């Protein structure tokens, strides 16, 4: 225990960023068991340290452990720490712990202590033999929004906008923002290295770090959680490269399966794993029992930065749509539309394109909008793409 306490004190002595991710304000701090899930590198460890600080406890009352660095069971650690007056136990990398669901249930039921834990977004919590849904509150931390990137990189602390604010007042909002910085210039930085907060550790090595993280997600998390051996992981890696260079509207599942050298059913399983690991985003398809049930409407990489490391021949339309989906999916439902590109919240139709994109395809559709890249300020129902980076 003394070694764990020493490492924990080092963890709490680290400088903590003042800026808090969007998820911080959504946390129910009264809950006894809080789970923060998300892809490696999105900032879960920093967020749980900020959550811990919210309780204003002495360091002696808090213990941070990483589940891949302990020999005792999690429940034994919690019992011992509680006996010495501990009030808050933080468990990082929960997916590395054996029988973590049973251990968390035991702690919740028998130990007077709060627990905050982080884990891979690929965790199959809903299919666990131990149902944690009645005990724990789970939150999913996504990649950085454009707004969050601006706050961290340039200390531009701008308020998040609702979708309705953007649709109704985008012109005045864009003009106001334009007075503070050049949106297209800063948006180009975001597209290069802005989706993960570790850009603060060096922008030149950003892509190398991102590639390393992607490999860890595949080789460690996906492989262990879904029991996939190394040669199959290499097939999944090949599938990612194929998806990177594909045009979503032209996606052919049969051809994709053939190119990836897998059966259709195996392809659907792999797509499910990648979706759960937050490496891709799937529009349509339906999920159940670790499988994708039917043909998806569109598939994108999870965020725009992944295209930089997975292929050199990416399609500009895919990049635009990937960014839009990554920003709007956090608080809104996204469906494929036969009329435009997307239907949002069963209410709005969006068509994406470049600065010269016209309304031809959606001109007679109520509540329809053109989302245009490479423009600073829009007009009427034509809205700049970058502005949707302020949704969270």
From TrEMBL:
The keyword Transcription regulation does not apply. InterPro entries: AAA+_ATPase (IPR003593), AAA_14 (IPR041682), DUF4143 (IPR025420), P-loop_NTPase (IPR027417), WH_DNA-bd_sf (IPR036390). Residues 30-143 form the AAA+ ATPase domain. Keywords: DNA-binding. GO terms for molecular function: DNA binding. CDD domains: AAA. It comes from uncultured Sulfurovum sp. This is ATPase component BioM of energizing module of biotin ECF transporter.
